[in-house]
Every structure is written in structure tokens, then in C-alpha cells.
Amino acid sequence: MEEISRASGSVGLSYGAHSNLCINQLVRNGTTAQKQKYLPKVVYAKTDIVAHSERMTAFIIEKGMPGFSMAQKLDKLGMRGSDTCELVFENCFVPEENVLGQEGKGKVADMYT
């Protein structure tokens, strides 16, 4: 990651977040079916950062799920090569097979990323 970041901080940031925050969740907590389905094409996001996280649950949201959309790309001051946008959830139903690990144990899973 250091060599990638030396050439481009934006690419290094994207690679680090994707590999360390997202991929590790699936590798450590995903079922075999989840790993086979999602590891080739994943993205990581966190819910409300100011909310308490004692009973946080990690889950998979698929592009195109009813109630899920992406807002416009943010125009940032730096790291423009690492796209960032808001993820919008409006009555988005998450099926049980999309839960990573155990319900309410996402904080523990997040600590291992």
C-alpha cells in the first residue's frame, strides 16, 4: 500500500479502505455463499457516525435494492481520485442472508478490520 500511495495518495486511500475495511469483514464474518457472491465486487460504508454503536450490525447492501440509492459524487478539496458520495437509505429492507456475522455484533467485527 505504501508503494501505491507514493504514486497516488487517492489510489492508496481507495485501496486501503477497500482491502482493510471492507474485504476483511467478508473474509472474517461472511458465509461461504456471501464470500462467493460479494468478494469480487464490494464497497464498504458505515452508518451514522455519531450514533451509539453498542449494537451495530454489519450487513451487505446490493446496488439496485429497493430503498437504496447513491447521491451525487461529492466535490472534495483533496483526494479527488477517490470517489465519495452519500449512500441514501429510504425504507431499505435488508434480508437476513445479507447480515454479516451476528446481529448486534458488528462492532466486534469492525474492530478486526
UniProtKB/TrEMBL annotation:
<dbReference type="InterPro" id="IPR009100">
    <property type="entry name" value="AcylCoA_DH/oxidase_NM_dom_sf"/>
</dbReference>
<dbReference type="InterPro" id="IPR013786">
    <property type="entry name" value="AcylCoA_DH/ox_N"/>
</dbReference>
<feature type="domain" description="Acyl-CoA dehydrogenase/oxidase N-terminal">
    <location>
        <begin position="1"/>
        <end position="43"/>
    </location>
</feature>
<dbReference type="InterPro" id="IPR046373">
    <property type="entry name" value="Acyl-CoA_Oxase/DH_mid-dom_sf"/>
</dbReference>
<dbReference type="InterPro" id="IPR037069">
    <property type="entry name" value="AcylCoA_DH/ox_N_sf"/>
</dbReference>
<protein>
    <recommendedName>
        <fullName>Acyl-CoA dehydrogenase/oxidase N-terminal domain-containing protein</fullName>
    </recommendedName>
</protein>
<dbReference type="Pfam" id="PF02771">
    <property type="entry name" value="Acyl-CoA_dh_N"/>
</dbReference>
